[in-house]
Amino acid sequence: MTPLYRLRDVSKIYRMGEVEVPALRQVDLEVRAGESLVILGPSGSGKSTLLHMLGGMDRPTEGEVFFRDEDLTRLDTRGLTLFRRRHVGFVFQFYNLIPSLTALENVAMATEIAPDPRDPREMIELVGLGERADHFPAQLSGGEQQRVAIARAVAKAPEVLLCDEPTGALDFKTGILVLEVLRQVNRDLGTTLLLITHNAAIGGMGDRVIRMRSGRITDRVSNEQPLQPSQITW
Fold it and tell me: Is the pTM of this model over 0.70?
């Protein structure tokens, strides 16, 4: 089976004047459809840059990034926009909800640009916020807002959900609730999940874990029995 993603010899160098800052160094990676992959590493290790490559938000300086048989490095700006719209959902550390819209309306907005979206109210129910659907972001806790953000991302019916430190702004108890929702999206909907974090404990819930440092992948581990979020402590 063709991997969902294939990265070959991917490097990224940011240039600031005459200074070159390498963010990724000759990264090779394959991602299988439906798997849960956790990417671990400290700040500055290249995690977010790697996620941007997978999400079509940035281009490598060198190397190739394939989504199935499509070379993302050859797409123009419009092509990358269509790729993100059709295939990828994003969840970030900060929720980026529109304050003047209710939780349900925030989720519904994402479905307007998707070719085959899911029902917004069903997605609100999926993340356990059916009774809070008509509340505005200011009336929701941080964990509830993050779950709305997940519902918004999943409502597009993406094949891939890319999560950048989704529990970084949350306390332990609330973070576990968010991880449970992400696991449910992965297991029940079959959405490929890629989650980056500096929190090593979260690696236990992934089918696979990769560790990064200084722009390189330094370790790859498969979990034969991934942990339930409720089994994770930090």
Answer: yes
